[in-house]
Design goal:
alpha/beta; Aspartate Aminotransferase, domain 2; 2 domains; seven-stranded mixed sheet; four-stranded antiparallel sheet; binds pyridoxal-5'-phosphate
């Protein structure tokens, strides 16, 4: 991140410095003093070691789901971290607890939950989902959960942690939702998980039909929108049916990760419950915590204890600069990311060598290398994907490098779409790009042209 922002905006932080000083000056204990030369040496060494990273900051990084936070988030985080408030209890950080409630309210409004919801930030999407599943178990102690085969692996893992039965279903385009779900043991499912924005392919699962199927069967709905949730700001402009996004407010719980598409540093997930009465399951009377007032403490409604108040301050500051609106703030960022994926799809569709796997719904594209007239087999496609993946990042000139990711699918699923390709392996490895940098709207075609060059050399 560009560190000049710290210098530029330093005067805006003067009040905080004056407030600190107003308590009286004191001398730092000698045990905490470090020689400047040691700090400099340490920072040089840190700087050198960090160059071992992939270039997450750059548009030529079109691989996994990660990118640096916005500078306003980094700045707000580090300023707040200097005080290190703990949002576990109000006394741990009254202002950052207030900011957390405002952020969570903004997310609840985005999804259409009315003012009586309950929710809070968490350290990750994993913990947020764990919490939602824990509440699912509290409400239906003798029932399990169900999720699609494309759900994040965290759900099967957390079902183990919580000792809940887990069932999977497969959503196939050619069958109705009822047909896809009919094999599920209805009586033993308490909560069904719908992923809005799957981590692998960026698919939005058909919430509306799933709600219609689940409600008459008294099955709760949890939405995992850890990655896809911010796309709600531009749902009117996305290719799929709007009704899935519009009905999010009917779900019993929702998870969204501000550290994925919310411009935040890691350490920021969020869980929301439609019914605040689930708060009773959180009741504890620990003698350790220091609940001093009658007002709601975030620690009373969260599974985790200590949590960074800085994460709330960072997200709060970001929302001041980037509101959750379609034409202002987050909307234009997500629109550019989505456009990057649409452009990529257009490019792949016209290419003689690169082929799209499925049409992108959000900002993830998946593709593979095969000549139209001599497509080859699943194992040759896998080999080509792996070669391109390594070749991109191994160019000696960093300005010529590119970074993409690999994605493995079942060969049976693959060959249903592409029957001309010979199946000679159980799985097939594809290329995948998460285009979560808005700059990629204008760079992705050039990047794909380079990948195409390298692919040509392989054939
Ligand atoms: C990323 C992700 C998770 C896990 O969240 P973390 O913040 O990485 O712990 C869960 N579900 C989905 C759909 C995700 O994309």
């Amino acid at each position: 991140m560009d560190t000049s922002i710290f210098q530029t905006f330093h005067p805006s932080l003067q009040q905080l410095q004056e407030w600190k000083d107003s308590f009286g000056v004191f001398t730092t204990h000698p045990s905490l003093i470090v020689d400047d030369s040691i700090i400099q040496k340490t920072l040089r060494s840190l700087s050198e070691r960090l160059t071992g990273n992939y270039p997450f900051h750059h548009p030529n990084y079109a691989g996994q789901m990660l990118k640096p936070p916005h500078p306003i988030a980094a700045l707000a985080y580090s300023v707040t971290m200097g005080l290190n408030p703990n949002n576990h209890a109000l006394d741990g950080g009254p202002p950052s607890s207030e900011m957390e409630k405002e952020c969570v309210q903004a997310l609840a409004n985005l999804f259409g939950y009315n003012d009586t919801y309950m929710g809070h930030l968490s350290s990750s999407g994993t913990i947020a989902n764990l919490e939602a599943l824990w509440i699912a178990r509290c409400l239906h102690p003798n029932k399990g959960i169900a999720y699609s085969n494309e759900a994040h692996y965290t759900h099967s893992r957390m079902a183990q942690v919580l000792d809940m039965e887990a069932h999977t279903f497969q959503l196939e385009d050619e069958n109705s939702i009822a047909e896809c779900l009919e094999a599920l043991p209805v009586d033993s499912i308490g909560t069904l998980i719908v992923t809005m924005g799957t981590t692998g392919l960026g698919k939005v699962e058909p919430l509306s039909e799933i709600l219609d199927w689940a409600r008459p069967r008294s099955i709760r709905i949890h939405i995992d929108a850890a990655y896809g949730g911010f796309f709600k700001t531009i749902s009117d402009y996305l290719p799929g049916p709007n009704v899935h996004w519009d009905r999010m407010q009917e779900a019993d719980s929702i998870v969204i990760d501000p550290h994925k598409h919310g411009l935040q540093p890691y350490g920021c997930g969020c869980v929301l419950f439609k019914n605040p009465e689930v708060g009773v399951f959180y009741k504890h009377d620990s003698p350790y915590t220091y609940f001093s007032s009658e007002e709601l403490h975030l620690g009373e409604i969260s599974l985790e204890c200590s949590r960074a108040g800085a994460a709330a301050a960072s997200f709060w500051a970001t929302l001041q600069c980037f509101p959750l609106e379609p034409n202002h703030g987050f909307g234009p960022i997500l629109t550019a990311c989505h456009m990057a994926a649409i452009k990529a799809y257009g490019y792949l569709d016209n290419s003689e060598i690169l082929n799209p796997y499925i049409a992108p719904e959000l900002d993830i594209v998946t593709y593979y290398v095969a000549k139209k007239n001599a497509p080859g087999s699943t194992s040759t496609i896998s080999d080509r994907s792996k070669k391109i993946f390594h070749q991109g990042m191994n160019n000696n000139d960093p300005s010529q490098q590119y970074y993409i990711s690999l994605y493995t699918v079942n060969s049976q699923d693959f060959s249903q779409r592409f029957p001309e390709i010979l199946v000679d392996s159980n799985q097939v490895v594809l290329l995948r790009s998460v285009l979560m940098r808005p700059e990629q709207e204008h760079t992705i075609e050039k990047l794909l042209a380079r990948i195409e060059e390298d692919a040509k050399a392989l054939l």
